[in-house]
Amino acid sequence: MSRLTPKFYGKTCPNLFTVVKNEVQKAFDKENRMAASLLRLHFHDCFVNGCDGSILLDALDGEKISTSNNNSARGYEVVDDIKSTIERECPGVVSCADILAIVARDSMVITRGPSWTVLLGRRDGFV
Known about the structure:
Elements: H1 16-30, H2 34-49, H3 76-89, H4 96-110
Helix pairs in contact: 1-3, 1-4, 2-4
């Protein structure tokens, strides 16, 4: 089992934090309520099966369309855009679970909330 560390992508995707921060800022500039929505996505992802990115899956029985999240959780398109941007720079390297964790922190910082060190190295879930 590997340990979570803030430098997990230090060599494989060195610009990760900058890319995420810039994309979150763009989303916030378009709609300032998006910061809260992105934090909520991370919360709901972690709440069910741990922080594994499974809330982003388009599964028929997935969290994304569950009764509690359907027409409630939002910001999926922002995370999709961030993932696409990261994939162009670091293909196949960064997990969606880690992206959600960074997005949550950056959403709080943008709204003048607290900051914290994001530990990375999560693996994505498949269900």
